[in-house]
Structure formats: structure tokens, C-alpha cells
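Reminder to self: C-alpha cells first, then the designed residues, so the page reads top to bottom the way the pipeline ran.
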């Protein structure tokens, strides 16, 4: 995206570029776009290291908006954390089509505390 963005002044349509590379969240954020950009780019690693409570990360394996590798990084720096990646689900379907699996994982996690 960053490389192709440099071609906009030379005729590459910005709308095409955004449609090709921007997430649905970004495209639908409207007036909140600047807040979304700041939030996505914020590094919370130092704050995450201070978390003492048990943490469960649930990710869809096909999530391109917040990919599972983000959860993997946080699991490494947050003590007493666990990562569950659900195959076949993305950023949106994990809370719709996979809701039964999510509820099961959350119940199991809460019972283990």
C-alpha cells in the first residue's frame, strides 16, 4: 500500500487503492478515521506487561484486520495469558458464526480461574 500510494500523483486512483487495501473498519470509520488510525498504530506493549489478571485472547485464524500474530505477541508479554485461534473464522465471523465456540472457550476460561 505504502509503495503504491506514491503513485497517486501519477494517476493511480486513490479510491481503487483504498478499496483494494483498506479494512472494512477503516472504510466505514468516517469522521472517526483519525481516532481509528491512532488506535491501530498505538503500541501497548509496555502497558500490557503490567497486566496481572488472567487474560484470554480469542482470534479468528483468517482475521486480517487484527491477525492472530498480534495475540501471539501479547501472550508472550502478558503473564498468565492464553491464546485461542479458531480456524476458519475472520474478524467478523468469530462473533457471529463462531459464537458457540467463543462462548464455550469463555466459559472454560472463567471456570479455570
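Designed residues (113 positions):
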Amino acid at each position: 500500500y505504502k509503495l503504491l500510494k506514491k503513485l497517486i500523483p501519477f494517476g493511480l486512483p486513490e479510491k481503487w487503492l483504498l478499496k483494494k487495501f483498506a479494512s472494512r473498519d477503516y472504510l466505514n470509520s468516517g469522521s472517526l478515521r483519525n481516532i481509528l488510525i491512532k488506535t491501530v498504530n498505538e503500541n501497548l506493549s509496555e502497558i500490557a506487561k503490567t497486566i496481572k489478571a488472567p487474560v484470554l485472547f480469542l482470534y479468528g485464524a483468517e482475521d486480517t484486520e487484527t491477525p492472530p500474530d498480534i495475540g501471539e505477541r501479547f501472550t508472550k508479554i502478558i503473564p498468565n495469558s492464553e491464546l485461542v485461534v479458531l480456524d476458519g473464522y475472520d474478524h467478523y465471523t468469530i462473533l457471529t458464526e463462531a459464537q458457540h465456540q467463543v462462548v464455550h472457550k469463555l466459559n472454560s476460561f472463567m471456570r479455570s480461574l
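The first strand starts at residue 55 and ends at 60.
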